[in-house]
Amino acid sequence: MPRPQTPNPEPAFADDSTLGGYFSVHDRPPAYTGPDGHPYTVSPETEKTANLRAPYAGYLVFPRWAQTGVGIVGHVESETLVECASHEEAIRRLGELTLLDVQRLLEEAIARPDGEVSR
Questions:
Q1: Residue 32 CB neighbours (<10 A)
Q2: Out of 27-41, 62-76, 105-119, which region has the weakest mean confidence (pLDDT)?
Q3: Which of 89, 57, 59 is nearest to 75 (CA)?
């Protein structure tokens, strides 16, 4: 009896150098130290929009953790990074970001005055 074929993993998720790959390999979000010295993790998020062609906007939320790691004490957000036809597509595309891109987006979010985000 022939063995069933397993699907090939998507190239962006083959290793932990991308956001989606990191989640797949480690089963947890990557952690960063922000330029403000605080520890952060990252969460890909979507929200519905009024755009009928691409009704899902995708962005990153960076929870800021207490120095002790005991709890979340705040957060910053990226600008809208993707606009897609579905929630799943938006999460997939956010997952294709490299961890270096995510670090850069965290630094930009922290540097933004008063956490201003336009969507």
A1: 17
A2: 105-119
A3: 59
